[in-house]
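chain below, 205 aa
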Amino acid sequence: MSSSLSVFLLDTAATRRLVGSRDEQLLRAVDEHFGDDLASDDEWFSRQIEDGAPGAAEALRAVVHGGPYSADPDHAFQYGYAYRRLCRLTGSFLDNSGFSPFRGSWLSVVDEGLRALRITAVSLAEFHYGDALPDGVPPSAAEYPSCGEWTHERCLAALEQFERSERDGHAPPLEPEVVDAVADVLGWLRHAGRRPGFGVIGFVS
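prediction:
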């Protein structure tokens, strides 16, 4: 079974504030941009919705209004997807060609490549196993979507680690596909580093 990593360049603090903002204009913008996507997801998750999970639009409204939420953690996955839609709307999608789709422990393999380059300030595994959903979004019993966040400060720290490694002439041998994936990650870090307050929010699904 394959998974997909979606990564977005965002003002991370401002993005978190969208939860509970009660911004009706934001809801209208999501419906305008992703109306077909909402309907498609409702069809995909029709069985879960029949069992009581909120539909995509209902989950989105709950996240923007800070509730009401389903009390069943088996249904809370919909709120994670709702938050991802808010990130898609308000952020910039970053190139993820080295990660979508991916299989097995690929994120950990690339993390090993980052560590070989002495980059330890960020980890791709956080996107797979992290719990970076904002306060107010209920935790889910489902594995997906998972969410991780790299703050602006951590992105800068990772870039500094890479630049120091380059200055030291440290060039460990890496498999070509790992080199390509690491190049993607460095691109994300550079985008974030150029914009104060901006970081990377990623979702695995």
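Strands lie at 2-3, 5-11, 92-93, 102-103, 146-150, 198-204. The longest helix spans residues 24-44.
thats it, cya
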